[in-house]
Amino acid sequence: MKTKSILFVLALSIGLFATSCNSNDENEGDTIAPIEGKWSIVKVGTNVSGVETLTDPPQNVSGCDHDFMDLKINNTLVSGDYDSTVSPCALTTVSGTYSKGDSKLTTVINGVTITYDIVNLTLTDLKLKNGNAISVYIR
């Protein structure tokens, strides 16, 4: 009887393991990393004919914190821009909304809607693409 119980548990374990390793195409590209949080822009660039070119963002003012977007859990966002034109590292913010779905991020700020492809989303990195334009953010 003990041998049958061990065999049953072993067979059940193998079945559960095989089921948990099953690939499902409909979930491919999805991630469990949350998009909510404060994301600082660290690279911008283009992708032309499959060649990606990234540089430091010209909008980041030297000596200041990086420009950012803060995606709140209630689907609102705050976009922050540091500028030293009037005073050193003056922060200007604008508010808007966002939605995420099917590897897309859509933002609405001042009535302007922009939809980005989410190229990469991890706990620390976010890479967005809009047409040929690429933006890379970190938390």
What does this structure look like?
Residues 35-128 form the Lipocalin-like domain. It holds the Pfam family Lipocalin_4. Residues 1-23 form the signal peptide. This is Lipocalin-like domain-containing protein. Keywords: Signal. This protein has 139 residues and is mainly beta. The protein has one domain: Beta Barrel (Lipocalin), CATH 2.40.128. The protein is built from one helix and nine strands. An eight-stranded antiparallel barrel has the order 1-3-4-5-6-7-8-9. Strand 4 and strand 5 form a beta hairpin. The longest helix is centred in the first third of the chain and has 19 residues, at 2-20.
Q: Biggest sheet: strands, sense, closure? A: 8 strands, antiparallel, barrel
Number of helices: 1
What string gives the helices and strands in order?
HEEEEEEEEE
**Shape assignment:** globular
Q: What gap, in angstroms, lies between the N and C termini?
A: 56 Å
Determine the strand fraction and express it as a percent band.
Answer: over 45%
Architecture (CATH level 2) name: Beta Barrel
- By DSSP, the count of extended strands is 9
Structural class: mainly beta
The CATH class name reads Mainly Beta
State the helicity in percent bands.
Answer: 10-25%
Average pLDDT taken over every residue? 83
Number of domains: 1
Q: Give the C-alpha Rg.
A: 22 Å
Which assembly state applies to the chains in this document?
single chain
